[in-house]
Amino acid sequence: MRVTLSSLLLVATASAAKAHGNHENHPRAHQNYERTATVDVSTLKGKWLYGYQGWFRKPASGVNNHWSPNGGTPGPGNVEVDFLPDVSQYPTNCLFPSTLTAPNGQPVQLYDNTCEGVVDLHFKWMQQYGIDGVIVQRFLSHLSDASFITILNQVEAAAVKYGRGFIVEYDASGGNSSAGSVANEILADYNSVVKTYTSSSAYIHQNGKPAVMVFGVGFPTVAISVSDGANIATQLKNAGAYVGLGVPSTFGSDVRGNTGFASAYKAANLISPWTVGSYSEGGYMAGYHTTTQIPDSQTLKSLGIDHAPLVWPGTSAYHLNGVTNPSAFDYFPRYNGSFYSMQADAVTSLAIKPLFVFNAMFDEMNEGTGNLPSLKTSQLPTNDKFVGYDNTFANTSFYLALGGQKATAFAKAVN
Ligand SMILES: *[C@@H]1O[C@H](CO)[C@@H](O)[C@H](O)[C@H]1NC(C)=O
Ligand SMILES: *[C@@H]1O[C@H](CO)[C@@H](O)[C@H](O)[C@H]1NC(C)=O
Ligand SMILES: *[C@@H]1O[C@H](CO)[C@@H](O)[C@H](O)[C@H]1NC(C)=O
Protein backbone atom coordinates (compact mmCIF):
# COMPACT_ATOMS: atom_id res chain seq x y z
CA MET A 1 0.00 0.00 0.00
CA ARG A 2 1.62 3.13 -1.17
CA VAL A 3 0.90 6.75 -1.69
CA THR A 4 3.28 9.03 -3.52
CA LEU A 5 6.00 10.65 -1.49
CA SER A 6 5.37 14.10 -2.98
CA SER A 7 1.83 14.24 -1.62
CA LEU A 8 3.08 13.10 1.77
CA LEU A 9 5.78 15.74 1.89
CA LEU A 10 3.31 18.53 1.21
CA VAL A 11 1.41 17.67 4.36
CA ALA A 12 4.59 17.13 6.33
CA THR A 13 5.98 20.50 5.41
CA ALA A 14 2.75 22.25 6.27
CA SER A 15 2.84 20.87 9.78
CA ALA A 16 6.56 20.90 10.41
CA ALA A 17 6.42 24.06 12.47
CA LYS A 18 4.16 22.66 15.16
CA ALA A 19 5.89 22.07 18.45
CA HIS A 20 5.39 18.77 20.21
CA GLY A 21 6.20 17.24 23.53
CA ASN A 22 3.13 15.43 24.67
CA HIS A 23 4.14 12.73 27.11
CA GLU A 24 0.71 12.28 28.57
CA ASN A 25 -0.40 9.44 26.39
CA HIS A 26 1.97 6.80 27.70
CA PRO A 27 -0.17 3.87 28.72
CA ARG A 28 0.02 2.52 32.23
CA ALA A 29 1.29 -1.01 32.57
CA HIS A 30 -1.92 -2.95 32.37
CA GLN A 31 -2.77 -6.44 31.20
CA ASN A 32 -6.25 -6.96 29.83
CA TYR A 33 -6.91 -10.62 30.53
CA GLU A 34 -10.46 -10.49 29.21
CA ARG A 35 -9.29 -9.74 25.67
CA THR A 36 -6.96 -12.73 25.61
CA ALA A 37 -10.06 -14.98 25.37
CA THR A 38 -10.94 -16.35 21.91
CA VAL A 39 -12.43 -13.59 19.75
CA ASP A 40 -15.93 -13.93 18.29
CA VAL A 41 -15.29 -14.34 14.56
CA SER A 42 -19.01 -14.28 13.66
CA THR A 43 -18.83 -10.48 13.38
CA LEU A 44 -16.49 -7.63 12.47
CA LYS A 45 -18.32 -5.40 14.93
CA GLY A 46 -15.99 -3.75 17.40
CA LYS A 47 -12.85 -5.46 16.08
CA TRP A 48 -9.42 -3.86 15.95
CA LEU A 49 -7.48 -5.48 13.10
CA TYR A 50 -3.92 -4.88 11.93
CA GLY A 51 -2.90 -5.07 8.29
CA TYR A 52 -0.35 -7.88 7.92
CA GLN A 53 2.15 -7.80 5.03
CA GLY A 54 4.07 -10.97 5.87
CA TRP A 55 6.52 -10.15 3.07
CA PHE A 56 9.97 -10.17 4.68
CA ARG A 57 12.17 -13.01 3.41
CA LYS A 58 15.72 -14.22 3.77
CA PRO A 59 17.51 -12.84 0.70
CA ALA A 60 17.94 -15.38 -2.10
CA SER A 61 18.21 -15.26 -5.87
CA GLY A 62 14.95 -14.10 -7.44
CA VAL A 63 13.31 -13.41 -4.08
CA ASN A 64 11.80 -9.99 -3.38
CA ASN A 65 12.89 -10.05 0.26
CA HIS A 66 11.67 -6.52 1.16
CA TRP A 67 14.69 -5.91 3.43
CA SER A 68 17.07 -4.99 0.60
CA PRO A 69 15.99 -3.25 -2.62
CA ASN A 70 18.70 -4.84 -4.75
CA GLY A 71 18.55 -8.36 -3.35
CA GLY A 72 21.53 -9.70 -1.45
CA THR A 73 22.45 -8.98 2.13
CA PRO A 74 20.73 -5.95 3.64
CA GLY A 75 23.13 -3.34 4.90
CA PRO A 76 24.32 0.24 4.43
CA GLY A 77 23.43 1.36 0.89
CA ASN A 78 21.14 -1.64 0.35
CA VAL A 79 18.28 -1.53 2.82
CA GLU A 80 14.59 -0.73 2.28
CA VAL A 81 13.22 -0.26 5.83
CA ASP A 82 13.30 2.72 8.20
CA PHE A 83 12.55 0.78 11.41
CA LEU A 84 14.26 -2.44 12.53
CA PRO A 85 12.54 -5.30 14.36
CA ASP A 86 13.50 -6.33 17.87
CA VAL A 87 14.26 -10.00 17.11
CA SER A 88 15.18 -11.05 20.64
CA GLN A 89 12.17 -13.39 20.91
CA TYR A 90 12.26 -14.91 17.40
CA PRO A 91 13.42 -18.52 16.84
CA THR A 92 17.17 -18.18 16.15
CA ASN A 93 16.94 -20.43 13.07
CA CYS A 94 14.59 -17.85 11.52
CA LEU A 95 17.21 -15.09 11.71
CA PHE A 96 20.03 -14.11 9.38
CA PRO A 97 22.76 -11.46 9.77
CA SER A 98 22.73 -8.15 7.92
CA THR A 99 25.82 -5.96 7.46
CA LEU A 100 24.27 -3.35 9.73
CA THR A 101 26.32 -3.04 12.90
CA ALA A 102 24.64 -2.96 16.31
CA PRO A 103 26.08 -0.72 19.05
CA ASN A 104 27.78 -3.80 20.57
CA GLY A 105 29.64 -4.37 17.29
CA GLN A 106 27.61 -7.44 16.30
CA PRO A 107 25.66 -7.71 13.00
CA VAL A 108 21.99 -6.73 13.27
CA GLN A 109 19.83 -9.83 12.75
CA LEU A 110 16.67 -9.81 10.60
CA TYR A 111 13.90 -12.39 10.22
CA ASP A 112 12.42 -14.57 7.49
CA ASN A 113 8.63 -14.33 7.82
CA THR A 114 8.04 -17.75 6.22
CA CYS A 115 10.19 -19.57 8.78
CA GLU A 116 8.08 -21.70 11.13
CA GLY A 117 7.60 -19.82 14.40
CA VAL A 118 7.63 -16.20 13.17
CA VAL A 119 3.93 -15.83 12.38
CA ASP A 120 3.24 -17.84 15.53
CA LEU A 121 5.18 -15.33 17.62
CA HIS A 122 3.34 -12.40 16.01
CA PHE A 123 -0.02 -13.94 16.95
CA LYS A 124 1.20 -14.81 20.43
CA TRP A 125 1.88 -11.10 20.91
CA MET A 126 -1.56 -10.20 19.57
CA GLN A 127 -3.17 -12.42 22.15
CA GLN A 128 -0.90 -11.11 24.90
CA TYR A 129 -1.87 -7.51 24.14
CA GLY A 130 -5.56 -8.11 23.38
CA ILE A 131 -5.46 -7.38 19.64
CA ASP A 132 -8.23 -9.13 17.69
CA GLY A 133 -6.27 -10.22 14.63
CA VAL A 134 -5.15 -9.30 11.14
CA ILE A 135 -6.15 -8.32 7.64
CA VAL A 136 -3.63 -10.44 5.77
CA GLN A 137 -2.52 -9.03 2.44
CA ARG A 138 -2.75 -11.02 -0.77
CA PHE A 139 -0.74 -9.22 -3.44
CA LEU A 140 -2.35 -9.25 -6.87
CA SER A 141 1.06 -8.94 -8.47
CA HIS A 142 2.33 -12.03 -6.54
CA LEU A 143 -0.61 -14.44 -6.72
CA SER A 144 1.65 -17.25 -7.94
CA ASP A 145 4.30 -16.71 -5.24
CA ALA A 146 3.91 -19.83 -3.09
CA SER A 147 5.59 -18.17 -0.11
CA PHE A 148 2.42 -16.14 0.45
CA ILE A 149 0.44 -19.38 0.68
CA THR A 150 2.91 -20.48 3.34
CA ILE A 151 2.17 -17.24 5.21
CA LEU A 152 -1.60 -17.70 4.79
CA ASN A 153 -1.37 -21.24 6.18
CA GLN A 154 0.69 -20.04 9.13
CA VAL A 155 -1.69 -17.14 9.78
CA GLU A 156 -4.63 -19.53 9.81
CA ALA A 157 -2.91 -21.95 12.19
CA ALA A 158 -1.67 -19.23 14.54
CA ALA A 159 -5.03 -17.44 14.60
CA VAL A 160 -6.71 -20.70 15.63
CA LYS A 161 -4.00 -21.46 18.22
CA TYR A 162 -4.13 -18.05 19.89
CA GLY A 163 -7.87 -17.41 19.51
CA ARG A 164 -7.44 -14.48 17.09
CA GLY A 165 -9.28 -13.77 13.82
CA PHE A 166 -8.19 -12.97 10.26
CA ILE A 167 -9.57 -11.89 6.93
CA VAL A 168 -7.90 -11.66 3.51
CA GLU A 169 -7.41 -8.37 1.69
CA TYR A 170 -6.27 -8.27 -1.93
CA ASP A 171 -3.70 -5.54 -2.47
CA ALA A 172 -4.71 -4.68 -6.03
CA SER A 173 -2.51 -1.58 -6.29
CA GLY A 174 -0.67 -3.25 -9.21
CA GLY A 175 -3.97 -3.92 -11.04
CA ASN A 176 -4.51 -2.68 -14.60
CA SER A 177 -7.95 -2.89 -16.21
CA SER A 178 -6.51 -2.23 -19.69
CA ALA A 179 -4.58 -5.48 -19.46
CA GLY A 180 -7.71 -7.48 -18.54
CA SER A 181 -10.48 -7.56 -15.94
CA VAL A 182 -9.01 -7.19 -12.46
CA ALA A 183 -12.40 -8.25 -11.08
CA ASN A 184 -12.17 -11.58 -12.92
CA GLU A 185 -8.60 -12.11 -11.75
CA ILE A 186 -9.57 -11.54 -8.11
CA LEU A 187 -12.72 -13.65 -8.36
CA ALA A 188 -10.79 -16.56 -9.87
CA ASP A 189 -8.21 -16.43 -7.07
CA TYR A 190 -10.91 -16.06 -4.44
CA ASN A 191 -12.72 -19.17 -5.68
CA SER A 192 -9.63 -21.31 -6.23
CA VAL A 193 -7.42 -20.23 -3.30
CA VAL A 194 -8.91 -17.95 -0.67
CA LYS A 195 -12.37 -19.46 -0.28
CA THR A 196 -10.90 -22.55 1.41
CA TYR A 197 -9.54 -20.39 4.21
CA THR A 198 -12.92 -18.78 4.86
CA SER A 199 -14.13 -22.03 6.43
CA SER A 200 -11.44 -21.78 9.12
CA SER A 201 -12.75 -21.39 12.67
CA ALA A 202 -10.63 -18.19 12.81
CA TYR A 203 -11.94 -16.54 9.63
CA ILE A 204 -14.00 -13.45 10.46
CA HIS A 205 -17.51 -13.20 9.03
CA GLN A 206 -20.03 -10.38 8.81
CA ASN A 207 -23.77 -10.84 8.22
CA GLY A 208 -23.12 -14.56 7.94
CA LYS A 209 -20.64 -14.09 5.08
CA PRO A 210 -16.86 -14.32 5.01
CA ALA A 211 -15.36 -10.81 4.93
CA VAL A 212 -12.97 -10.05 2.06
CA MET A 213 -11.32 -6.73 1.29
CA VAL A 214 -9.75 -5.26 -1.83
CA PHE A 215 -7.33 -2.34 -1.58
CA GLY A 216 -6.62 -0.11 -4.55
CA VAL A 217 -9.92 1.08 -6.07
CA GLY A 218 -10.13 4.82 -6.85
CA PHE A 219 -6.46 5.79 -6.56
CA PRO A 220 -5.07 7.98 -9.36
CA THR A 221 -1.90 5.88 -9.26
CA VAL A 222 -3.76 2.59 -9.78
CA ALA A 223 -5.00 1.66 -13.29
CA ILE A 224 -8.27 0.04 -12.19
CA SER A 225 -11.26 1.53 -14.04
CA VAL A 226 -14.51 2.62 -12.40
CA SER A 227 -16.50 -0.24 -13.94
CA ASP A 228 -13.82 -2.82 -13.07
CA GLY A 229 -13.76 -1.43 -9.52
CA ALA A 230 -17.54 -1.86 -9.24
CA ASN A 231 -17.27 -5.37 -10.71
CA ILE A 232 -14.67 -6.33 -8.11
CA ALA A 233 -17.21 -5.68 -5.36
CA THR A 234 -20.24 -7.05 -7.19
CA GLN A 235 -18.61 -10.31 -8.29
CA LEU A 236 -17.20 -11.06 -4.83
CA LYS A 237 -20.63 -10.33 -3.33
CA ASN A 238 -22.23 -12.69 -5.84
CA ALA A 239 -19.67 -15.30 -4.80
CA GLY A 240 -21.03 -15.08 -1.25
CA ALA A 241 -18.57 -12.66 0.38
CA TYR A 242 -19.08 -9.53 2.47
CA VAL A 243 -16.89 -7.04 0.59
CA GLY A 244 -14.83 -4.11 1.87
CA LEU A 245 -12.94 -1.73 -0.41
CA GLY A 246 -9.74 0.10 0.56
CA VAL A 247 -10.05 3.51 -1.13
CA PRO A 248 -8.51 7.01 -1.12
CA SER A 249 -9.18 9.32 1.83
CA THR A 250 -11.09 11.61 -0.54
CA PHE A 251 -13.76 9.03 -1.38
CA GLY A 252 -16.54 10.88 0.47
CA SER A 253 -16.75 13.87 -1.86
CA ASP A 254 -16.99 11.53 -4.87
CA VAL A 255 -19.81 9.61 -3.21
CA ARG A 256 -21.71 12.78 -2.28
CA GLY A 257 -21.22 14.34 -5.72
CA ASN A 258 -21.76 11.11 -7.66
CA THR A 259 -18.45 11.70 -9.42
CA GLY A 260 -15.33 9.67 -10.08
CA PHE A 261 -15.43 6.22 -8.48
CA ALA A 262 -18.75 6.77 -6.65
CA SER A 263 -20.44 3.82 -8.38
CA ALA A 264 -17.57 1.51 -7.42
CA TYR A 265 -17.59 2.68 -3.79
CA LYS A 266 -21.36 2.25 -3.56
CA ALA A 267 -21.08 -1.37 -4.74
CA ALA A 268 -19.18 -2.30 -1.57
CA ASN A 269 -20.54 -3.47 1.79
CA LEU A 270 -17.80 -1.56 3.59
CA ILE A 271 -15.41 1.30 2.88
CA SER A 272 -12.01 1.74 4.51
CA PRO A 273 -10.18 4.91 3.50
CA TRP A 274 -6.37 4.64 3.28
CA THR A 275 -5.19 7.75 5.14
CA VAL A 276 -1.44 7.23 5.59
CA GLY A 277 0.07 10.62 4.77
CA SER A 278 -3.32 12.34 4.47
CA TYR A 279 -2.92 14.36 7.66
CA SER A 280 -0.37 15.25 10.29
CA GLU A 281 -0.74 15.34 14.04
CA GLY A 282 -1.28 19.11 14.02
CA GLY A 283 -3.87 18.99 11.24
CA TYR A 284 -5.87 15.95 12.29
CA MET A 285 -8.56 17.01 14.78
CA ALA A 286 -9.64 20.35 13.29
CA GLY A 287 -8.80 19.19 9.78
CA TYR A 288 -9.34 15.65 8.52
CA HIS A 289 -11.32 14.33 11.49
CA THR A 290 -13.79 17.24 11.53
CA THR A 291 -14.04 18.14 7.87
CA THR A 292 -13.80 14.67 6.32
CA GLN A 293 -14.03 11.73 8.71
CA ILE A 294 -17.22 12.81 10.50
CA PRO A 295 -19.14 13.77 7.30
CA ASP A 296 -17.91 10.56 5.62
CA SER A 297 -19.24 8.47 8.50
CA GLN A 298 -22.64 10.15 8.00
CA THR A 299 -22.55 9.67 4.23
CA LEU A 300 -21.78 5.96 4.58
CA LYS A 301 -24.51 5.48 7.16
CA SER A 302 -27.08 7.13 4.90
CA LEU A 303 -26.13 4.65 2.15
CA GLY A 304 -26.16 1.63 4.45
CA ILE A 305 -22.43 1.07 3.89
CA ASP A 306 -20.20 0.09 6.82
CA HIS A 307 -17.12 2.10 7.78
CA ALA A 308 -13.67 0.96 8.88
CA PRO A 309 -11.51 4.03 9.52
CA LEU A 310 -7.72 3.70 9.44
CA VAL A 311 -5.33 4.57 12.25
CA TRP A 312 -1.55 4.63 11.82
CA PRO A 313 1.31 5.48 14.19
CA GLY A 314 3.35 7.72 11.86
CA THR A 315 5.31 7.04 8.70
CA SER A 316 8.86 7.18 7.35
CA ALA A 317 10.11 6.08 3.93
CA TYR A 318 13.66 7.38 3.56
CA HIS A 319 15.26 4.12 2.42
CA LEU A 320 12.19 3.08 0.42
CA ASN A 321 12.55 6.23 -1.65
CA GLY A 322 16.20 5.57 -2.39
CA VAL A 323 17.68 7.86 0.32
CA THR A 324 17.56 10.79 -2.10
CA ASN A 325 15.12 12.82 -0.02
CA PRO A 326 16.24 13.53 3.54
CA SER A 327 12.80 14.86 4.49
CA ALA A 328 11.32 11.39 3.84
CA PHE A 329 13.05 10.34 7.05
CA ASP A 330 10.51 10.29 9.91
CA TYR A 331 8.32 12.69 7.94
CA PHE A 332 5.21 11.92 9.98
CA PRO A 333 6.79 11.50 13.44
CA ARG A 334 5.07 9.33 16.03
CA TYR A 335 5.61 11.72 18.94
CA ASN A 336 5.88 8.75 21.31
CA GLY A 337 2.48 7.42 20.30
CA SER A 338 0.50 10.62 20.79
CA PHE A 339 -0.33 10.91 17.06
CA TYR A 340 -1.66 7.34 17.09
CA SER A 341 -3.61 7.85 20.31
CA MET A 342 -5.25 10.97 18.93
CA GLN A 343 -6.60 9.05 15.91
CA ALA A 344 -7.59 6.00 17.93
CA ASP A 345 -9.52 8.12 20.45
CA ALA A 346 -11.17 10.12 17.66
CA VAL A 347 -12.49 7.08 15.75
CA THR A 348 -13.73 5.61 19.03
CA SER A 349 -15.57 8.86 19.80
CA LEU A 350 -17.38 9.04 16.43
CA ALA A 351 -21.14 9.41 16.97
CA ILE A 352 -21.78 6.91 14.19
CA LYS A 353 -19.68 4.02 15.40
CA PRO A 354 -17.41 2.43 12.79
CA LEU A 355 -17.93 -1.30 12.24
CA PHE A 356 -14.26 -1.99 12.98
CA VAL A 357 -10.90 -0.21 12.99
CA PHE A 358 -8.13 -0.93 10.46
CA ASN A 359 -4.77 -0.39 12.13
CA ALA A 360 -1.93 0.21 9.64
CA MET A 361 0.11 -1.99 9.87
CA PHE A 362 1.46 -4.80 12.01
CA ASP A 363 4.73 -5.25 10.14
CA GLU A 364 5.17 -2.47 7.54
CA MET A 365 8.71 -1.27 8.24
CA ASN A 366 9.32 -0.01 4.67
CA GLU A 367 6.74 2.78 4.95
CA GLY A 368 7.40 2.98 8.66
CA THR A 369 3.86 2.24 9.81
CA GLY A 370 4.84 -0.93 11.68
CA ASN A 371 3.63 -1.58 15.22
CA LEU A 372 5.57 -4.75 15.97
CA PRO A 373 8.37 -4.71 18.58
CA SER A 374 11.13 -2.58 17.05
CA LEU A 375 14.51 -1.28 18.16
CA LYS A 376 14.80 1.72 20.41
CA THR A 377 17.01 4.63 19.39
CA SER A 378 19.85 3.43 21.64
CA GLN A 379 19.74 -0.03 19.96
CA LEU A 380 20.00 1.20 16.36
CA PRO A 381 22.94 0.32 14.09
CA THR A 382 25.89 2.66 13.97
CA ASN A 383 26.46 2.46 10.18
CA ASP A 384 23.14 3.67 8.71
CA LYS A 385 20.20 5.87 9.67
CA PHE A 386 16.94 4.48 11.15
CA VAL A 387 14.01 5.68 13.25
CA GLY A 388 14.03 4.23 16.77
CA TYR A 389 11.37 3.81 19.39
CA ASP A 390 11.91 6.19 22.29
CA ASN A 391 14.59 5.05 24.76
CA THR A 392 12.25 5.80 27.66
CA PHE A 393 9.70 3.14 26.60
CA ALA A 394 9.43 0.32 29.14
CA ASN A 395 9.97 -2.20 26.32
CA THR A 396 9.88 -2.52 22.53
CA SER A 397 6.23 -3.73 22.53
CA PHE A 398 5.07 -0.19 23.30
CA TYR A 399 2.84 0.16 20.22
CA LEU A 400 1.21 -3.25 20.61
CA ALA A 401 0.46 -2.55 24.26
CA LEU A 402 -0.98 0.85 23.32
CA GLY A 403 -2.95 -0.72 20.45
CA GLY A 404 -4.44 -3.29 22.81
CA GLN A 405 -5.63 -0.49 25.11
CA LYS A 406 -7.19 1.40 22.22
CA ALA A 407 -8.81 -1.81 20.94
CA THR A 408 -10.33 -2.41 24.37
CA ALA A 409 -11.73 1.12 24.57
CA PHE A 410 -13.18 0.86 21.04
CA ALA A 411 -14.84 -2.50 21.71
CA LYS A 412 -16.42 -1.09 24.87
CA ALA A 413 -17.72 1.98 23.02
CA VAL A 414 -19.20 -0.08 20.19
CA ASN A 415 -20.65 -3.06 22.01
C1 LIG B 1 9.26 11.10 24.14
O1 LIG B 1 9.23 10.91 25.56
C2 LIG B 1 10.46 11.22 26.19
C3 LIG B 1 10.33 10.89 27.66
O2 LIG B 1 9.21 11.49 28.23
C4 LIG B 1 10.83 12.66 25.95
O3 LIG B 1 12.10 12.92 26.48
C5 LIG B 1 10.87 12.95 24.44
O4 LIG B 1 11.09 14.33 24.22
C6 LIG B 1 9.56 12.53 23.81
N1 LIG B 1 9.65 12.76 22.39
C7 LIG B 1 8.67 13.38 21.70
C8 LIG B 1 8.91 13.55 20.24
O5 LIG B 1 7.65 13.78 22.23
C1 LIG C 1 5.67 -3.36 27.76
O1 LIG C 1 5.37 -2.03 28.13
C2 LIG C 1 4.00 -1.71 28.08
C3 LIG C 1 3.89 -0.23 28.37
O2 LIG C 1 4.39 0.47 27.26
C4 LIG C 1 3.23 -2.57 29.08
O3 LIG C 1 1.86 -2.29 28.99
C5 LIG C 1 3.47 -4.03 28.74
O4 LIG C 1 2.83 -4.84 29.67
C6 LIG C 1 4.95 -4.32 28.72
N1 LIG C 1 5.17 -5.69 28.27
C7 LIG C 1 5.93 -6.54 28.97
C8 LIG C 1 6.08 -7.90 28.38
O5 LIG C 1 6.46 -6.23 30.01
C1 LIG D 1 -1.93 -0.87 -18.38
O1 LIG D 1 -1.90 -1.79 -19.44
C2 LIG D 1 -1.86 -1.17 -20.70
C3 LIG D 1 -2.06 -2.24 -21.78
O2 LIG D 1 -1.29 -3.39 -21.50
C4 LIG D 1 -0.54 -0.42 -20.83
O3 LIG D 1 -0.46 0.23 -22.08
C5 LIG D 1 -0.45 0.62 -19.71
O4 LIG D 1 0.81 1.24 -19.75
C6 LIG D 1 -0.65 -0.04 -18.37
N1 LIG D 1 -0.74 1.00 -17.35
C7 LIG D 1 -0.07 0.94 -16.21
C8 LIG D 1 -0.27 2.07 -15.25
O5 LIG D 1 0.70 0.02 -15.96
Automatic annotation (TrEMBL):
Q: Which CDD domains match?
A: GH99_GH71_like_2
Key word Signal present: yes
User: Per the UniProt entry, what species is this protein from, by scientific name?
Assistant: Trichoderma asperellum (strain ATCC 204424 / CBS 433.97 / NBRC 101777)
Question: Record's Gene3D superfamilies?
Answer: Glycosidases (3.20.20.80)
Signal peptide stretch: 1-19
* The protein's name: Glycoside hydrolase family 18 protein
Q: Which UniProt keywords apply?
A: Signal
Reading the lineage from the top rank, the first entry is Eukaryota
